[in-house]
Structure formats: structure tokens, C-alpha cells
Amino acid sequence: MRRFLFVIFGLVGLGILLSLGTWQVRRLAWKEAVLSEIETRIAAAPVALPVTLNPEADRYLPVQITGELLEGEIHVLVSLKRVGAGYRVIAPMATGDRVILVDRGFIDLEDKDTPRTLGEAAVTGNLHWPQEIDSYTPDPGFDANIWFARDVDMLSAALGTEPVLVIARSKTDPAIMPLPVSTTGIPNDHLQYVITWYGLALVWASMMTFFFWRTRAAKTS
């Protein structure tokens, strides 16, 4: 009876671990499809800036705008792998009768106060409404003009623009390195979970096999 209960317990546990691994396989396929769709959208041919925008429907939409880069940039502190700390330069841009935000790209820390190219410009990039703020994000240092996240509503209020952000993938200044939108920052840990759950299932099955072998060996000795 005890052996029968152990078999039931072991099979139930193995089934749970295998089902969790299988569920993560499905989640991995779903996430890879989502990332592929986003990458296709990012790389599409740019269009004119739509009159009305929806932060969900128009996220990553490629656009091409012409107008005038204005004074009053904001610096968002970031760190790049193999490069180090620096700032994203967020600037207002007048295009037609609208003023929007443009993420011009990355500058080194020592270039924070270096004058940037302003005036007429053509910018190709992608619309984005980044979600970078959590409970640990410090408030902006308004006096030093150092921000720690790109909150489009706060940026637009500070610079007097529409809450619309275009992240440039074309150069707007020789000294600014564009940081185009990509899927790099979108987490996809499902493969790790697949390996974890199936690995645990393998360990569980090995323990069951060892137990039955020991039990059978004890009976025959």
C-alpha cells in the first residue's frame, strides 16, 4: 500500500513538472512570435506622423518627420554595455504646427553641456511610450537636468510638447549616437523556465527510478 501511494505521488509530481515545462514551451513560442511581430513593425518603411495617436496601437510605428529641433533638451541617465554611463538627449522638435519629443540618442557624461546642432532637421525613427518607471526610480533632478527614466507625460509637461516621443534611428548631430528602438530590452526568460521545469522533471524521475531500484534490491537480498 505504501509503495502504491508512493507511485501515485511520484507520477503526480512528475506530471505537474512536465506540464509546467510544456506550458513554458507554449509561452516561449508565444513570446517569440510577439518579438518577431515587434521587430517586423520596427523595421517597416516609415510613414508620416499620424494626426491622432494611440500609445498602444502606434507603439513602435516607424515615422519620418521634418521640422526644427528646438532648445531645451533633457538628459536621461543611462548605461550602455561596453560603453558605460551617459545620457539620452531628449529634445523638443517643431514639425508643422505640432511640437513633439525626439530621443536624439546617446552622449558621454562629459558632453552633457556641449552645444548640440539645432534648427532644421529630418528625423527617421519609431514612436514609443517607454515604461521605465517603477517604485525604485528616483525623481528627476530638475536643477541638474538629470532624469532617470523616459516618462513621456512628464517629459512633455517639462518641455511643453505633445506627449509623443520619436526615438531617432538617424543621426541628428555628429556627436550623438542614435539608440534605435529594439526588442533587446524586452524580457524573454521562458527558455530558462523550460530548462528548469524539465530539468526538475528529469531529477524527479531519476529519484523515483533509484527508489524503486533500491526497493527491489532490498527485497531480493
Q: What's the helix-strand series?
A: HEEEEEEHEH
Please state the CA-atom Rg, rounded to the nearest Å: 26 Å
Derived from helix and strand composition plus strand pairing, the structural class reads: alpha+beta
Which residues form runs of ≥5 with pLDDT under 50?
none
Shape summary: elongated
Structural commentary:
With 221 residues, the chain is of the alpha+beta class. It has 2 domains: 2-38 and 188-220; 61-168, OB fold (Dihydrolipoamide Acetyltransferase, E2P), CATH 2.40.50. The chain is built from 3 helices and 7 strands. It has helices spanning 2-42, 152-159, 190-220, and strands spanning 62-69, 74-80, 84-95, 98-108, 119-127, 146-147, 165-168. A 5-stranded mixed barrel has the order 1-3-4-7-5. Helix 1 (2-42) runs antiparallel to helix 3. The radius of gyration is 26 Å and the shape is elongated.
Tell me briefly what this model is.
It is found in: Cell membrane; Membrane. The chain is α+β, with helices and mostly antiparallel strands and 221 residues long.
Lay out the secondary structure.
Blueprint: H1 2-42, E1 62-69, E2 74-80, E3 84-95, E4 98-108, E5 119-127, E6 146-147, H2 152-159, E7 165-168, H3 190-220
Parallel strand pairs: 2-6, 4-7
Antiparallel strand pairs: 1-3, 1-5, 2-3, 3-4, 5-7
Keywords:
221 residues; alpha+beta; 3 helices; 7 strands; elongated
